[in-house]
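look at this stuff:

>
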Amino acid sequence: MKLLIVEDDKTIASGLEYSLNQEGYEVFVCHQVQEAEKIINTDINSISLCLFDLSLPDGSGYDLCRLVKENADVPVIFLTVIDDEVNVVMGLDMGADDYITKPFRIRELSSRIKTVLRRYQKNGTKEKDSIQIDSLVVLPLEGKVYKADAELALTALEYRLLMIFINHRGQILSREQLLEMIWDVAGEFVNDNTLTVYIKRLRKKIEDNPQRPVLIETVRGLGYRMAAEDVKK
């Protein structure tokens, strides 16, 4: 699922991008209204949820929220240091779906994102709630994975690793990149040897033949890649 973040504080934006990538989301980051407007005008239908800072150098999150709601039924959460009733009510009246005040914990934000997305799913929006790759069916909002109609018992790290590959289909990911993306999931330390073990375990669960993997292939000397297109059988 793709998230659009508009935050002028580059430190905060970088932290959000890193943390939400770990959650399995694909993240687009902008630091100004003008940058975000281009994405909203051309690619809003590919975005699952927007996170907008209210105070931006060339405008406000209110302007972006209005533009989003004019173009698509995509949820918006405001990020702000302002915590007063007037701004909360104003944002919600404009169509925002939630409002979180800085500083906040990433787990709290993640929980609110999932809650808003679940609400949109129940309301019958066109948000994509399943991903199919060959015989695998992934339900991101439920955190479940099925293979040939049987649910797979994936650990948190295995699921996160699978979502990283899904969100980067066709892209070669080095071991260093993978280690950065799955760092500190569930408080577990992941080193290079542990990564090898988790990839082996994940392949054993999702591949038809783990000895000859086709979903997550090894690119010798470079890393790993999930094919951009479904495997021809």
Notes: The chain has eight helices and 13 strands. Helices lie at 10-22, 33-43, 61-71, 85-93, 106-122, 156-167, 175-181, 192-206.
